[in-house]
Queue: 2 jobs
Job 1
Amino acid sequence: MLGRVNHIALAVPNLAEAAEKYRSVLGVSVTAPDALPEHGVSVVFVTLENTKVELLEPLGEDSPIAAFLAKNPAGGMHHICYEVDDILAARDSLVAAGGRVLGDGQPKIGAHGKPVLFLHPKDFFGTLIELEQV
Ligand code: CO
């Protein structure tokens, strides 16, 4: 069902500082910050040869990463995103196998303009999984 790792997302307390550290210390290029109010985050992407790293900062009052940062004030790995060919087929087979999809179960348009869904971290050993249709 799963294709490539599309990205690994890290929640960070300060996006500008994190982006600058990736640039200056790790020597990678980082995209300009993008505010995604419908997802409650601001984001930059670090583009690597084989995948991307997404740095996330909370945006707005009820950001879905606020609780994560309250528990992990220095930041930490927030989710891993796998590519799928058909997100509705992937969802239906996961749900049939007893998996739980977060929210209303309908794909939303994610940071790359593609449909995404999130799977319950308790079903996957404590790691939040994002599926993105490519
Ligand atoms: Co993501």
Job 2
Amino acid sequence: MRVDKLLTSVGAASRSEAAKAAARGEIKVNNVTLRRSDVHVDPERDEIIYKGEKIVYKEFVYIMLNKPDGYVSATDDPQEKTVLDLLPEKYKRLGLFPCGRLDKNTLGLIILTNDGTGAHRVLAPKNHVPKTYRFECECKLEDKDIEMLANGITLDDGYVTKDAVIKTDDGAKSGDITITEGKYHQIKRMFAAVNNRITYLERVSFGDIALDGSLERGEWRELTQQEEKLFK
Ligand code: URA
């Protein structure tokens, strides 16, 4: 792989920045200073130093973000703030996209990656990846509502939802709901179908990956190796 491609793929520099850095002697490969940025390197074996910092090569990047209110799950939007706006500049060059969507006012776990194949796999309906949400709703859920939400309910467009798992707290106006699909506004529409209304929604897990409780709203971190394995 060319060293400029490598620097671009980890978000360290653009191609033209890499070329200028090489001309200034700011790129070293195995302790040898390069003068050109089109030199080929082995990202797995060679030690690459860019502006004094060791470059760690990863084919793909996976980020866990605790989404705050008011951000849309898109890569760019003419009017709205997007989840990408919460990441530092270097990540914006990596072609990251949100793996699935949360509504603008839904909070919590969203995974961003540039691994198109991996994202496609976890989002494919046939794989039934469970997603758990903390919810609050306007009216008390009656036993019959809980049963309908759990066993498949007909949405406003005629779609019948797949089985869900729902656990309510004391008072039955809040709880956790796990669904294995991701239709547009699905949980809000499920609650609307039992004449109720969601007033708070936060995703707390995606597959086996749980939202890191130490992340404040708007904060992010890369997935750990263990979480990456779970994602894949
Ligand atoms: N269901 C919804 O209604 N909204 C979300 O953001 C996620 C699931």
